[in-house]
Design goal:
The structure is a homodimer of 239-residue chains. The first copy, chain A, is α/β, with parallel strands linked by helices. A six-stranded parallel sheet of chain A has the order 3-2-1-4-5-6, with helices on both faces. At the A-B interface, α7 and β3 of A face α7 and β3 of B.
């Protein structure tokens, strides 16, 4: 039996793997900056926002803080960044609330919707993301991404790479971990999934963090599949 | 403001409201009976299976029993019914496991897929059912039902009409209860939803429990909408 028999569903990391968060956040920031006449380096701002992503989840992972959805963590980080980038006194809370929804409107990579559409003919597709349900629903509707279910962090009320996020998702799909193929562009995510028995597909997204990306330039583990796009994943799975 | 302004998402009961569970279960039972030469009244069998639905959930609702998904409760009820209907010694466990999956292949009412497709253009659509995620994913794929998210019982690890099932679903959608329109063909479900602040749409499904149906023949509450199909719901909401 090769590594790909018996797969019952595909589970997807989303930020960076399915959607291009960085370009989308920069675009939304620039639009706001032009409207309000703000002199902000929106590339640095986008990188800083994502930079606060893992630190903001850490107190939930350790149990210091009860579950809060990613929308709330993004919003708290945005308060910090509005000060750091010098526009806190130029915007009101409603404007920041609206900017926070930029994460609900991230554009997919060009191969994502066509790749998922092909994959879905054969497999149920579920998100296994740290994004909350409302965010993922908006993202899927925005990008025409045909997920069958939004699972992951909010179902488990915990954040990856905590094991229960992967295990609850497999359980909800009615599958053993071994029957789930975890698809991600991040080594730490796939390594956490593999430790729990999930199969793994690494998607090479070498500019997901911008032109100066230094991590996740390629696979650093023994994954079942390594592909360059979700269409290539559909090819590899015969979809 | 009328009762329908400010709706951010539609949440659906599924068994009886979106899918015709009874005809589908009878059909699957008859197919099995013909294959194995079983003399069983499959209409009575279907009614009995559904009859054990609420009693089987009750120990979870009261907290006597930890959460188990509906697939498991259906399977336990099936053991009881195989004895009651006299075919327990004619089938093995694998055959009963396969019959249990009949609930994953229930056919939608004829108006369901076209109605949901129209409604989805304007509103996110989520299941708010007692069915577990794996069951709902299969059902949606089987019937071409374009739900954006599978929420409800498994997210809350509790069964309707317990309040947390409705409240967790609204929370996951990022909405106040008042911004959710609960769509169901059952008075007890809509009354529980209305007590928590959700808006309500009653769908008249007068044969969901067969020709001898005596309950839920029509609305018994002051609902925001009463319609005869999901296409009529799309009409009423201007979709």
């Amino acid at each position: 039996m090769n590594g790909l028999e018996g797969i019952g569903a595909l589970t997807f990391d989303v930020f960076g793997t399915v959607v291009d968060w960085r370009s989308s956040i920069i675009r939304e920031g620039r639009a706001l900056g032009e409207r309000l006449g703000l002199a902000v380096d929106w590339e640095a701002f986008a990188d800083d926002w994502r930079g606060l992503y893992h630190p903001s989840m850490e107190p939930v992972r350790t149990g210091e803080r009860p579950w809060v959805p990613l929308d709330r963590l993004h919003r708290e980080s945005l308060d910090t960044l509005a000060h750091r980038h010098g526009f806190a006194d130029r915007v009101d809370a409603a404007t920041l609330d609206a900017l926070n929804l930029a994460w609900h409107r991230l554009d997919p990579w060009p191969d994502s919707a066509p790749g998922l559409t092909r994959l879905r003919r054969r497999y149920p597709l579920a998100t296994l993301s740290n994004g909350n349900v409302a965010l993922m629903v908006d993202l899927a509707r925005h990008g025409g991404l045909p997920f069958d279910a939004i699972l992951g962090a909010e179902l488990a009320r915990q954040y990856k790479p905590r094991p229960e996020v992967y295990l609850r998702t497999a359980e909800a799909l009615g599958l053993a971990p071994e029957a789930c193929l975890m698809v991600a562009a991040h080594n730490h995510d796939l390594k956490a999934a593999a430790r729990l028995g999930l199969r793994t597909a690494y998607v090479i997204r070498p500019t997901q963090s911008g032109p100066a990306q230094t991590r996740d330039l390629g696979p650093e583990g023994d994954y079942d599949l390594v592909v360059e796009s979700l269409e290539a994943l559909a090819d590899a799975l015969g979809c």
